[in-house]
Amino acid sequence: MTFSNWYSKIPLLILILANTLFYSCSENGDAEDMDYGPISVGKDLSIYLNGRGVMMQAFYWDVEPRFEWWNTIANKTDEWAVAGIDRIWLPPASKGQSGGYSMGYDPSDYYDLGEYFQHGTTETRFGSRTELDNLIAKAHGNGIEVIADIVMGHNSGGGLQYNPYRDKDTYTLFNQSHGNASGIFNRNYEDYHPNSIHAMDEQALFFEEQDLCHLQPNVQNGFWKNENSVAKYYKNTVGFDGWRFDYVKSFNAQFVKAWTDEVGGWSVGEFYDGNANLVRQWMTGSGINAFDFPCLFQMKDAFLQNDLSTLETGDMLWKTDPDKAVTFVANHDTDREPVIKESDKLYAYAYILTHPGYPTIFYSDYENIEFKEKLNTLIYINRTLAVGGLTVLFSSNEEYIAMREGEGANPGLIIYINRKASKDTRTVITPWINKKLHDYSGSITTGLSTDNAGSVSLKAPARGYAIWSLN
After folding, report:
1. Sign of CA dihedral 27, 32, 33, 35
2. How far is residue 432's CA from residue 453's CA, in Å, rounded to a whole number?
3. In CATH, what class is 3-45+391-470?
4. Which residues of the chain does CATH 2.60.40.1180 include?
5. Where are the CATH 3.20.20.80 domain residues in the chain?
6. pTM for this prediction
7. Which cofactors does this gene product need (predicted)?
């Protein structure tokens, strides 16, 4: 080929290369330069740091390696503190019936935090008491609060005893020889349903024969009233800062309120239901925060049905109770058969980390190498630009655009989610007059400008999202 023939083909080669680069970026939602213009450099967002953080659910179901989990988490608290994690939610720390295989949701001895040999092991699945103490100290040294998972609805692993209320033997005897080696907060059949007070509480029975009766004085004293109650021991001696209450549907909200009124601490309840009004009723009765399951299920529907307008119209806790709604994308229960598909999780995280509510990150998602950098960026945006009221600017089957209106000198942000297989633009009106904009998600490399009416044609990558704010 002569030089002149080769030179004549340069424009075609450039076009082929440009198309190749464009489509490879668009497919995975990574950074793409739609106009091939000058690279935009955003401003330093640290001036907007607001002191807020996000919570990390610091476990998944059947964590490995067994007996090393407290050490594993302790070693991550330095990194997590830098990322903006201000609370870690630990699994139930006490000995369960399954011993070294227990995830803690089959509680037997609330005071055995890896100190007594029972159920075939001294350490819990997560490690020893000493290792738990070290983890809590390490977290506190990094400015991170530690949240205890409290299972107060049912027990497992007790000894057999004759139960006159059932006219048979039941596993309801908990003492030093039967599943309660600590000898503190011993229990018997009177502490479970049915008993001399009533047949059952107003909620559905859960683990029917070991369903705790919270009206019994022994149960109230053991859980929160005594000076060495579970609540006071965990807070004042062990060093936990707050509570996540497990499966609160199985007992009345008044007992969560009694616990937190007695000892305080940041608290959240697992009212596992997509009906936002039912969750709100529970929050009113308990007086504490709740996980935003309605938001989770609305996001699921939006993505599965390919209708992002659901994100605008669906009833979610954060829309009425932003200060009490704990938003999340996955947890140890929902991720075993994922509610949000892996391919949709970054959309969901982009949504909760730019919207009102207190977001939670799931350990397995954060440790996913494909997600980690993007999640760190979203967490930083949450801690800086995600402030002020929220207005939805546009929603359709495959697009969702919403604005956080900012506060004071903080301009807020606009998030643009695009599920189309190609890049997209959408003209919206903003309060930003004749301003330069930058995509702080890193998806779009070129900047934009608003006109003298605040109008701008926003851009979003294929199957991805962009988060625009002032440059």
Report:
1. positive
2. 8
3. mainly beta
4. 3-45+391-470
5. 48-386
6. 0.92
7. Ca(2+)
Q: What pLDDT, on a 0 to 100 scale, did the predictor assign at position 31?
A: 52
- The mean of the pLDDT values for the chain is 92
Helices (H) and strands (E) in the chain, counts: 15, 20
> What is the chain's length?
471
Q: What single-letter DSSP state applies at residue 297?
A: H
Whole-number pLDDT of residue 12: 34
d(CA 321, CA 311): 16
Over the stretch 388-400, which tens digit does the pLDDT of each residue have?
Answer: 999 999 999 999 9
pLDDT digits (tens, 9 = 90+) for 186-200: 999 999 999 999 888
Calculate Rg over the CA atoms of the chain: 26
Find where tokens 């109770």 sit: 321
Cβ partners under 8 Å of residue 59, min gap 6: 69, 73, 90, 91, 103, 332, 363
Check pLDDT > 80 for residue 203.
no
CATH no., domain 48-386: 3.20.20.80
SS3 letters for the chain? CCHHHHHHCHHHHHHHHHHHHHHHHHHHCCCECCCCCCECCCCCHHHHCCCCCEEEECCCCCCCCCCCHHHHHHCCHHHHHHHCEEEEECCCCCEECCHHHCCCCCEEECCCCCCCCECCECCECCECHHHHHHHHHHHHHCCCEEEEEECCCECCCCEEEEECCCCEEEEEEEECCEECCCCCCCECHHHECCCCCCCCCCCCCCCHHHEECCCCHHHHHHHHHCCCCHHHHHHHHHCCCEEEECCHHHCCHHHHHHHHHHHCCEEEECCCCCCHHHHHHHHHHHCCEEECHHHHHHHHHHHHCCCCCHHHHCCCHHHHCCCCEEECCCCCCCCCCCCCCHHHHHHHHHHHHHCCCEEEEEHHHHCCCCCHHHHHHHHHHHHHCCCCCEEEEEECCCEEEEEECCECCECCEEEEEECCCCCEEEEEECCCCCCEEEECCCCECECEECCCCCEEEEEECCCEEEEEEEC
